[in-house]
Amino acid sequence: MKSHEYQNQNNESALYGVNVLDLSEDIAGPFAARLLGDFGANVIKIERPKRGDPQRYKGPLFEQAREGEQSLLFQYLNWNKKSIVLDITDTSKTQVFRKLVEWSDIVVESFTPGELDTWGIGIDKLLEWNPKLVLVSISNFGQTGPYAKFKANDLILQAMSGMMQISGSVEREPLRQGLSQTYYCAGLNAAYAALAAYLAAERDGVGDHVDVSILECLSSELVYNQPFYTFMGAIQGRRAAVQDPFDGEPIKARNGYVSVQAGGGAPFHKFADLLNLPELADPKYATPKLRTTCSVDLHEMLSSRFSEIDPHQIFVEAAKNRLLMGVVQNANDLLACPHLEARDFYKNIHHPETGTFKFPAELAKLSKTRTRINFRAPMLNEHESEILNDLGL
Amino acid sequence: MNKIGTLPLKGVSVLDLSYVFAVPYIGALLADLGAEVIKIEAPNRLDLTRGMAFARYAENEPGSEPWNRSGVFNVLNRGKKSIALDLSTEEGRKIFFNLLNDTDILLENFTPRVMRKWNMQYEQLAKIKPSLIMLSNTGYGSGGPWSEFPSQGTTLEATMGLTQYTGYRDDKPWKAGQSYPDFLATWSGLLAILAALVYRKKTGVGQWIDLGMYQVGSGLVAEAILQYQLDGVDIERTGNEDPVNVPSNVYRAKGEDRWVAISVCSDDEWKTLTKLMHHPGLAEDFKYKNESSRRANRLQIDQIVSEWVQDKEPMELMMILQEHGIACGPVFNSRDLMVNEQLRHRKFYQMINHKFGIGARPIIGRPYRFKNRTIKISKPAPGFGEDTWQVLRDCLSIKESVIGSLFRHGIVSDHPTDPGDAQPWNISDNIKLKTLVEIDPGYKKNFPEVE
Q1: How much is the pLDDT for A332?
Q2: Which residues on A lie below 8 Å from B172 (Cβ)?
Q3: A347 has pLDDT over 90
Q4: With a threshold of 0.90, does the pTM exceed it?
Q5: Residue B150: which of A73, A172, A319 has the nearest Cβ?
Q6: Among B22, B91, B185, B422, which has the minimal tally of Cβ within 10 Å of its Cβ?
Q7: What is the mean pLDDT of chain B?
Q8: From A317, which residue of chain B is nearest by alpha-carbon distance?
Q9: Testing the interface with A: which of B168, B198, B340 to mutate, by most A Cβ within 10 A?
């Protein structure tokens, strides 16, 4: 099959000519495969018969569209891919699947550990068909081990990873990160690990099985916390009931929240000028330890002042004075952000079923091989005849 | 037992000028993947993970060389060599440019102003080395109205949009985790670097990677950005609740501050749970029979589950529910992770021997295993400037007498000139605040075996 049939228009793409077969579903795997597509790889997505990727039915949903083509999140996770429906659990259909595996440099999957083996298409079989292949498997806890078949979701993974132990208030239950951070983290890790294996296979002809654990992606973040234990036996807990307000925890401002952080380039007393609170210059507020002891009063002082201030305005003002501040932004703020606009962060993508929406489009900017959205997410089985044609079937 | 394939980045040379969390972690992972990584440190300015803000010392004792005894530094900089080189001097930069000749990847996170002043921007370096792949990490990226703004993990987390969607129901937004934006930058950076390497293998051409942390996070709140465009509704903060599944929450279990997460994702699972709770009548109760009725009665259900969980041993509960096909797991703390049998099976923590009185410590590895390649931590993090002599002599063939002179003039160093005042961590304050749960005196017994 001629892989150039699927090449992206522009030759200046980092992964030009790299072929990716995406068997995965939901968020992590599809995100990883899409990222490779953004860098220019040719990505074919195999979807299960009848309904395809379950993500097609998960929100946000544009309900006026046809069922299975309503999910905007599906569109976000699956642009730069072509879709073919194939029952890979059925070995009589293996011919098409085998040809696709032979075409591939990288295969991404996220089935329960062991499923590929029960279907006769585990790593040994895939490497037999294509010895240079890189199979990337994404699972909750890894392909093997006592927890390999455990059920989990975002909440359970955050709990078991160690993340929730340090998140939220000591006075309340542990707190998870909102939305689907877990799966995006796994997707990012799987994508870069896939490329590392691909680079190696290109050089020495040895394919590989990259076995990604979603849980471990989160546990990998505990670079600061785990050493408390491993270097001195200290077990960390959640955030204190009242904290130094200059340690970043959100503070209510007029119609919003801000985050203030001491320890930046400018000296602390500059906050006194910025906020027109001369008391802040008092040495009794000079260090984190001192501020923690009077954090209740400090909090009141700051809340009262911030309630009179527009969060975005003070954020820009602080930055100009080299003071560290953040502003809690929501979707509306992000969509209207002048900086994201200037960075060309969004792309309007049209889909025949849902119309046009603005999508976050670019993670990092590369000077020679910019990431690109070459085409929208596919409709279910949209490219079956193209793909079969090119396979000579 | 060594596996059949070679390391992915064998033969690749990395110069790491970066400091703190995000980019040094990139350097560490590139080293794990087989690259040779040289960290350039400033003689007169310690990386914050070596001292001051983030350093926590082995046994909480700074010792005579505290900058070499910091936990987080040793995780984020494993696998690297260190030279202490004063880039603010012309002689220092001359050495840097010489090192550049043999460098494939350059990592930095200086403020752009500094790189401009030093004539070390990509355009200039690319003239010397066209195949160079250079990654520059800043808060907001180069270009755009906010590009010169200072930034740091917590404040960025808010600005990126992540904080808005994290928090207890009816409460303010909360930060979660620790420096989460830093890791998004680490992984996005690695992805971009590896893609650039693939491109370079084919074309011989390098490039610049402009990694602005702000937009990486914004890309991961896509659901909210899309929902808002659909109907003007901003997704609300609902703590640990699930929009569809009930019960799905963390529940207090037996023991001091022990919690278990449980998620019931179908009517069948609910039936199973009610049997396990010895409440079979509940399954037939129309109030809870299907997803939507359970959502309507979330509080009552959480109350029932909570009462059942409160005297249960977390690990036993996990085993029972998992055996019955229900997603369940305890909130693990750092000790739990250290002894966890799944993480042991995966060899997620690797025992590494350290000098400076630290000894053998488990260091966080990577969240993936390669069947055919032995990816692992190759050496401990370096002492401050400990490879300065060796690198100057062996990589740059500088005569020993010249090296001696460079040391005498402070262009290079093997000792920080301004280490500041290293203090032990205030344990009692943190115990009082409950941000420290306990000190485990037998913690070393929980370490995995040295391989």
Answers
A1: 98
A2: 250, 252, 257
A3: yes
A4: yes
A5: A319
A6: B91
A7: 95
A8: B149
A9: B198
